[in-house]
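Two folds, back to back.
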Amino acid sequence: MALRKGSCRLRFLLGDMSQTEFASRMKVADSTVSRWLREEREMSYENAVLASRILNCHAEDFYDWIEVPKGKRQ
């Protein structure tokens, strides 16, 4: 089995924190967070680790993970 990223779960993980506050704490532009939320861009591993520290979760929590047969990563 292999894994591929599914839907972004950031909106759920933000809870009551605003997108603007999260962007400020991440030291990224609001538009970057907006692209993550609209799934136009994926978070880098480094950003996922930083975000996980801010939101008190795990880096792997930012996406749904889908098991796929090895060699079928589409």
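---
second:
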Amino acid sequence: MVTQAQPLATKPLAKREPDPADHTTCAVMSDILNRIGDKWSVMIVGRLGHGTKRFSELKRAVEGISQRMLTLTLRNLERDGLVVRTVYPEIPPRVEYKLTPLGETLLEPINALWDWASVHGEDIARARERYDGP
């Protein structure tokens, strides 16, 4: 009998409100949301969703990111168990990054956000023009 790995359990965020009295849970949730919600993490996870990438490929793919910020973001994603870094003993060393199974669970919400932004980008631009006025 062949068994398949079960996907990580996920519940909609609306059903997972932390208890305001549980300060530890609130702090952890805040830290996690800050990490996966920053623009560089979202961009990197999105790019790695298309497969393993070398550092230089990510640098080219994530417009506007500095080498230092890419390095810091990748380290944080690796620390959080979302990305795995593999170093090959070559000269010069080859380093590749890919999503872990946990990191792959972020692709669905990230893709949903990108789809939403694509659909509503013009609406946001019009709202900004109205707000900023003539």
